[in-house]
Amino acid sequence: MKEIGFDIISDLYLSPDDSFNWEGKATSLYCIVAGNITNDTRTLILTLAHLSKFYQGVFFTTGPYDLENKSDIQDFNVRLSNSFNKMSNVRSLYDNIIILDGVALVGVNGWYGLERDEQTEHMAHLDLGYLYHSVKDIQRHLNVKRIIVVSACVPGRPLYFGEEPEVIDTQMPLQSILSVDTEFKISHWVFGGLKKQVDTQIEGIHYLSNPYFKRTSGPVIMQTINWAKRISIDV
After folding, report:
1. What domain range is 190 assigned to?
2. How many domains does the chain have?
3. pLDDT in tens, 108-157
C-alpha cells in the first residue's frame, strides 16, 4: 500500500496587480487547482509557474473566470495547454488524463449551475461527454486504482447545500457520470465554483472544495484562505 498526497485549491480570482505567494504553504508533492485563477492570461500562466516551484506536479482545469471574454474557449484551452509543454511539472487537465502511481486525474470545467450562452452551452455538453467517456474508458485500466475527478464547478445539487441556483433545474449534473464508475474507482471529487469550503462524503465519494477567493470583481466574499487542503489516497 502506498500513499499519494495532493494539495487542493481553487477560485483565486487574482488580478494582474495582486501579490500571490505560496512559499512555505505546500504540504504535498502535487497540487490540483480547480479553476478560476484569473481572467488575465499572463497572470494565469505566471501563477501556475509560481506554484510549480513548490510541487513536483501542478494540475489545473480552467474555470469560467479564466475563460471570461474568450472568443473561442476550445482554442484558448488548447493554446494554454501548449504553453506549458516546456515545463515538466505543470499540466492542464483539458482533454488530458494524468495517471500518477495508480491515481488518475480527470478534469473539466463543467459549467453546471451557471448561466450559459450558445458557446458555453456547447462546452458544457462537450465537458459532460468527455467526463463520461473518460471515466468509462479507464474502468478496466490496470494501472488505475483510484480516480480523482476535478471540476471548476459544483458537480451536483447536493453540494450546494440548499443554496443551488435556479438554472440547475434545466442542466444535467456532472454527478450523472457516476453511473459508469462500475468498478467504484472514483474516490475523490475536487471542485471549485463555490464560496465555501466543503469536505464531505456522499455515497462513498469524498467531495472537497477549498476556495481562496482573494477577491472577485465585486465585493469581498469571504476571508482569504491562505493554505491548501491536503488529500491523501492509498493505492
Report:
1. 3-234
2. 1
3. 999 999 999 999 999 999 999 999 999 999 999 999 999 999 999 999 99
As a whole number of angstroms, the distance between CA 173 and CA 157 comes to 7
CATH number at residue 129: 3.60.21.10
Query: Residue 151: what are its φ and ψ, rounded to 5°?
Result: -135, 145
How many angstroms separate the CA atoms of 172 and 185, rounded? 22
Cell numbers linked to 165: 441556483
Nearest-10 Cα torsion for 140, 146, 150, 153: 90
Residue type, 177: I
Distance CA 187, CA 170 (A): 28
Residues linked to residue 128 through DSSP beta bridges, in sequence order:
none
Decide if 69 contacts 117 (C-beta within 8 A): no
Closest CA to 10 of 63, 58, 47, 46: 63
Report field, pTM of the whole predicted structure over 0.90: yes
Go through 43-81 and write b for each residue having 16 or more CB atoms within 10 A of its CB, e for each that does not: bbbbbbeebbebbebbbbbbbbbbbeebeebeebbeebb
CB 147 within 8 A of CB 178: no
